[in-house]
Design goal:
By secondary structure, the protein is α/β, with parallel strands linked by helices. The chain contains 19 helices and 21 strands. Helix 2 runs antiparallel to helix 12 and helix 16 packs parallel to helix 17. It is elongated, with a radius of gyration of 36 Å. Pfam families: SBP_bac_11 (PF13531), VWA (PF00092).
Length: 599
Amino acid sequence: MGGRHRTEETDGEHDPYVPRRRRGSRPPSRGRVLAPLAGAVAVAVLCGVAAYVVVNKGRGCDGAPIGLSVVASPDIEPAVAKVAQKFGQSGRTAGGKCVTASVKAVQSATVANAMSGSGPTSGKVDPDLWVPDSSLWLTRSGLAGSGLKASGSAARSPVVLTASKTGAEKLQAAFSPASWTGLLNAANAANPDGLARKVRVLALDPAQNSAGLGALLAGSAVLKAGGGGEELLVGVLRQLSESTVSSPDSLFATLTKAAARIPVGVASEQSVWAFNTTSHPSNPAVALYPEEGTISLDYPIVITAKDAAVREAAEAFQTELTSAAGRQIVQDHGFRTPQGKAGGALSPENGVKADKPAELALPDGAAVAKLTQAWHQIKLGTRILALIDVSGTMGEPADSTGVSRMRAIGNVAVEGLKLFPDKSEVGTWIFSDNLRGQGVDWKEIVPLGPLAQRIDGVTRRDRIAQEMRNVQAIPTGNTGLNDSLWAAYRKMTDEYQADKVNTIILFTDGVGNDDPNGGLSNKEILAKLKSAYDPKRPVGILIISFNTEKGVDRAQMSAIAKATGGAAYFPQTVLEIREIFLKGIARRLCAPSCGSAQR
């Protein structure tokens, strides 16, 4: 049998677990047994009470606790939440009350928009402490101007180029070392036959993602330092506007797919680490560090609480987050310290490097605002009516190559079409004189509409290209320019679309208005355009005029452009067309207040 219950001692049997009393010794009385026991219990109770008092005296948990609302960028939220858990167990107090911290992941753009009223949100967001992914949100949303500022930094993560491991190996010959210069060349819409033939650049929307904006700022700074012009930047922005992805998850999913052109994206270093360590892909992502240096996301700590006790609680949480233990938690989640020091998580096995990359200075607020506005303008849709001169003089040579002005214009139009995405709305008219009966000098060839839309079985893009290759000058045709231009202007203003850049592109040889039927004089067309132009509903006129030598003709063309905030260009060779088209697109960066231009 097993050991016996102590109640069996009353039966007079020996209990082997109790020592025998020595012979001749006096048995203790019941009172002498209970007295030490009672004393031990009393001491234990007193010690327990003392421990309770000491612990709770430190916690100061009088009344309801203060609930601290913390909102963090989704990438750093897991680390902040882990710090908050430790913080809640630490016994921190504020205003004599205990503090509990709840952490919620919200996109930084959503919080910035909600707090500033500057854009769309998914609901009310009113944190006591905010950790966005970048202080750029304070600058671009105007929050910095309202007095809101960072009181510290939770982490750092450089913006890097990224490709799949397989893609990076294929890029060694064409894209090594990695650089912003190489990325800009690959993304330049005006150079489709260069690096773009091998590399497809993917971009995170800079309006929604700080890594995307950081990449544009870094690329722009490198471009400016290298003496690059605005046209190249516009070409890059135009191309990137058509290759944005909605999120880092979409970016990495695209990077790992097999494609004819190697996909190269832009992301934060931490997102590369997170993709590799959470998804464990068979073809992991690799961070490529630009040789010129880069801009880093700085994860500012922004205390927004107004109540004194809540603000004290937020400051206590910031202390916890920036403590040595807090820093370690953040590093373990793939981030660097604010000074750029890497933890053990940043290793080649995870697709990243521990070495601190060179830093590019973060641009000032004015530069950020300018580039943000440029992106917004480039993203606007395009609506273009091309007005093409087919009068007799267009059959004459355009330059020393002997190609006719008409053929040069056709080539120009086909070349220019490559710069516009499928959603762009484009239409074409030709003009000479009496094309649709007496006194009607213009004729619609392809109606306005999206380039991707099909007309009689072919896309509008292909239809326009076909018409431009076949267009012929009318040997005996006169130039009813003014009447045709005014008809086109009325159409575009009557059908104005606010979400697009509305433009007339006039292709001519600049010999002026020559209309035997009379029509509008040069003076009258200028007066009408000045009267009709509305800067709140701008329709600009861009003029590409070959071989315009006469000063009087150039002056008239420039005056027409100036009346609508447009520009007049006078190329002497066909090779100038790409630059001219990009200059035309670049003008949307300043629309509707660009002023006139003559090139």
